[in-house]
Structure prediction request, 208 residues.
Amino acid sequence: MTKSGLIEKVAEKTPHISKKDTEVVVNTIFDAMTDALKKGERIEIRGFGSFQVKVREAREGRNPKTGEEVQIPAKRTPFFKVGKELKEMVDGEPAAAAAGGERVRA
Amino acid sequence: MTKAEIVETIYERVGFSKKESADLVETVFHIIKETLADGEKVKISGFGNFVVRKKNERKGRNPQTGEEIRLPARRVLTFKPSLVLKNILNEEPVGGGPGADS
Prediction:
């Protein structure tokens, strides 16, 4: 599912809100999250997970083509840690086992 | 930042009531979760991709007792940040400039 697919689904679930507004809402959510990470803030969405910016230290690398040594500067990288509820949902237990319905063996 | 603060941002920037803003934010995360639970990936351009990966069963070891254990096959969620997001976070060099280490 892409962002437009997500907007589509949100619009289906909220028929009283225009699709245009739904799009603005979805974009605003990810813009707000991006802003927070840019400020170095941690984001915690209960039941979903948390995002945090970590710093990767500078290191020496090598250009694989030329074999030349290069300095790789320190970089910030966003990290996501999946929340307990979503982790269990994805692994299919117990949420999906209950919602997934049919099992092969009765 | 928490979900409540995201709701607040929607309320301020988009102009829905607090109740509507809360419902919308809840719906967005609910749909993302349901999609991932179905094993489908969610790609948010400019932010990143949430991908469900299958891990095969493997043998592990309890690091405390040294006992061999079987780690069953499972599905895990990974997040691959978009290049756009990574670039935004690195607009200023690490450790450089005043206020960089807040």
Q: What stands out?
A: Residues 95-106 of chain A have pLDDT under 50 and may be disordered. Chain A touches chain B through 57 residues (CB under 8 Å). The longest strand of chain A covers residues 49-56.
